[in-house]
Amino acid sequence: MFKRIALFLATNLAVLALVSIVMSVLGLNPATNAGLLVMAAVFGFGGSFLSLAISKWMAKRSTGAHVIDQPRNESEQWLVSTVRRQAEAAGIKMPEVAVYDAPEINAFATGPSRNNSLVAVSTGLLRAMERDEAEAVLAHEVSHVANGDMVTMALIQGVLNTFVIVLARVVGRVIDGYISGGRDGAPGLGYYAIVFVLDMVFGLFASMIAMWFSRHREFRADAGGASLAGRQKMIAALERLSQTYGQSTLPKQVAAFGISGGVGHGLKKLLMTHPPLVERIQALRDAPLEAARGRVMG
Length: 298
Hints:
Blueprint: H1 2-25, H2 34-53, H3 55-63, E1 66-67, H4 74-90, E2 96-100, E3 107-113, E4 116-122, H5 123-128, H6 131-146, H7 149-179, H8 189-229, H9 231-244, H10 252-255, H11 267-270, H12 277-286, H13 289-296
Parallel strand pairs: 2-4
Antiparallel strand pairs: 1-2, 3-4
Helix pairs in contact: 1-7, 2-7, 4-6, 6-8, 6-9, 7-8, 8-9, 8-13, 9-12
């Protein structure tokens, strides 16, 4: 936790330093733009932290997931006992366990913290996967929770949102001043049009950075799943996904936390939340188990 907070603070200081340098290069005084920085931080982090705070509620509502309070059958009993055992091994509080109705093989984990989380599996997974494969999928999701991936994603998104808001308006002000011949006064319609375009352009690059981290965390969660459930079980689960994975029906709010994210090419590949399954399988085969164990709580 302290390591994550230190990284968060260091990242924010780096962003503020970079923004100050950009302002200085463009001839703007950072001291006179403090209000912009505060506004950007409030809006940039506000949405990310709000989404994180209500992530469990939104996931249950959007997927119609049934939380298992008292197991109704042997399958639900197995799910709860497996997640409990894996959570204890990973050193986290027992997540809520849920099942949601969907035809594809899928699962996801979400929640505002390592000790306040939800692990959910689709009915398609329960029908199509062997127990060993399903155990590995659960281990993958528990590893996401243990790694604090939901919190880290929110922090990264907040930093990127802040950077996009500030940079778009700083650059927009410079371009508008150049076009208008440096006249003082309130910004005109041209400024708002420029900022609108820059928000989209910088937002696209910010999304690429966020999705790069999202793909990176999938490798770590696979390694954690291999440590908790066994390397061969994790490989078998990913191989089954590569053969039978259908179109995801997960809503956008939790799609990034599913077990797989489909395929993509060209620019679309840079915006994928998950790396190709073949790369994930090969990474597991190449990585020593000691390295995998080190990533469960990384």
